[in-house]
Design goal:
This protein is mainly alpha-helical. The protein has 14 helices and six strands. The chain has helices spanning about 1-25, 40-60, 70-75, 80-110, 155-180, 190, 200, 205-210, 220-225, 240-270, 280-305, 310-320, 325-355, 370-405; strands at about 120, 125-130, 135-140, 145, 405-410, 410. The chain is globular, with a radius of gyration of 27 Å.
């Protein structure tokens, strides 16, 4: 049956994802360092990845491929064969790109060695946490410079160059990861959880930031968001992992709401025969918010490559039954984790170098400190947020009172909507007939 086949495909997708993730991690050891990885481990991981790729290609044949007579694919055609064919094309197109990024990462790490390098590692890893003699967590060891005067000019350029190559791997793998997860169907449960008002989802402050008509700077917004909720005195404040995931999750939900409203508004605009001066203005506003939100999300992914999956991404991966997309997303995610770790290793080397010179590391990016404009913006945004929350609270109280006494938007009813002993949220819920287009 179709349900049994879907369950089997979902199981195959999970197994493929786990196999690819394990192989990617195994090829780099417990802690990736700026050293050549063990050749045996790399070869074993490469073979596992090739086998997983072959199985994924078999599960998602090319759109133009022809099934052999009597084969299982011919006798049992999948109802989503066209969709799987497209995912197969996506897999073939981007898998080789990921393999190239993997090789680029290996070459960048192998360019350093203990013999002719400027720094050394005392061990392959350090124990961060253990219990009863069992190692529970490990961390990277700190590098030790061979010269007390720091790196030479050539060595410094070499570390900077490797860091840039590694950053390119992070950016490329992130794009492919988002692309593969985006291709997975959106679960109905997630769509049903969306609120009709995006302002309620992302908050007034971020809503106003994404609504600016010109001069939108996602990098400056990321700097300001790094300080929200703090005491505004830390010059190197960064968003916590929880805050990053929460904001990415809210942005995805807001974009889904705006996309639906934009499609609806474009349909309405196309049916208007008399076009006034304000024709298309709401559609332009929604499109601008979508554009600004997308740009801001790209900045967040670039600054926090190790951010956990959002609720939508988690639900997509949990329900995914496409082996090709599972393999692609797992491989891209593994490369992101390894590359992020290696980039931290380059920053560790630069940190030790600048510490030897008695100066701060200029390459460890931190948010720009708050200025006068930022303080003014913070005060105005906070005031607007409080006013909005107060208005919504008063509105809920007013609506609840009207429903309690039996008054709705069309007048009095014969009996109160809810008795005093039974005032459940569903019973006293009041739906406004007014247009909320200003609160998209």
């Amino acid at each position: 049956t179709s349900d049994a086949r879907r369950e089997r495909d979902a199981r195959d997708a999970r197994e493929t994802s786990e196999t690819v993730a394990e192989a990617c991690a195994r090829g780099w050891g417990r802690v990736p360092l700026l050293r050549a990885a063990a050749s045996e481990a790399r070869a074993s991981a490469a073979k596992t990845l090739d086998d997983a790729y072959a199985r994924a290609c078999e599960a998602a044949p090319s759109v133009g491929s022809v099934a052999m007579p009597g084969s299982e694919r011919e006798s049992m055609p999948s109802p989503s064969s066209g969709e799987r064919g497209r995912s197969g094309e996506t897999l073939r197109e981007h898998w080789e790109c990921l393999r190239a990024l993997d090789k680029q990462l290996a070459n960048a790490a192998a360019s350093f060695s203990d013999d002719d390098g400027a720094f050394t590692y005392a061990s392959a890893y350090e124990v961060a946490r253990e219990w009863n003699g069992v190692v529970l967590e490990v961390k990277a060891p700190k590098p030790t410079l061979k010269s007390p005067n720091g790196l030479s000019k050539e060595e410094y350029k070499k570390v900077i160059g490797a860091s840039q190559w590694i950053r390119g791997v992070i950016e490329g793998a992130t794009r492919i990861s988002l692309l593969s997860i985006e291709a997975m169907p959106v679960p109905a449960a997630w769509q049903e959880s969306l609120q009709a008002n995006a302002k309620e989802t992302i908050g007034v402050r971020l809503y106003n930031e994404l609504s600016v008509s010109y001069g939108f700077d996602p990098e400056a917004l990321a700097d300001r968001e790094s300080f929200w909720g703090s005491d505004l005195t830390e010059e190197h404040a960064v968003m916590s992992d929880i805050d990053v995931v929460a904001q990415l999750d809210a942005l995805e939900k807001a974009e889904a709401v705006w996309s639906a409203k934009l499609k609806e508004q474009q349909t309405i605009d196309s049916l208007e025969t008399l076009k006034t001066w304000g024709h298309g203005s709401r559609a332009k506003t929604l499109a601008r918010r979508l554009r600004n939100s997308s740009a801001y999300r790209r900045v967040l992914y670039a600054r926090y490559p190790n951010a956990e999956f959002t609720s939508l991404q988690q639900m997509k991966l949990a329900r995914n039954d496409n082996v090709a997309l599972a393999a692609l997303a797992s491989y891209a995610g593994g490369l992101i984790r390894v590359a992020s770790s290696l980039r931290e290793r380059t920053l560790d080397v630069l940190e030790v170098h600048h510490a030897a010179l008695g100066e701060a590391n200029p390459h460890r990016k931190s948010p720009k400190p708050f200025g006068v404009f930022d303080y003014i913006s913070f005060t105005a945004s906070r005031t607007s947020e409080l006013v909005y929350e107060l208005g919504k609270s008063l509105e809920r109280t007013y609506d609840g009172t009207r429903a309690l006494v039996g008054v709705d938007g069309r007048g009095c009813s014969a009996q109160p909507t809810a008795a005093l002993a039974d005032r459940s949220p569903a019973a006293i819920h009041f739906v406004s007939d007014t247009d909320d287009s200003d609160d998209d």
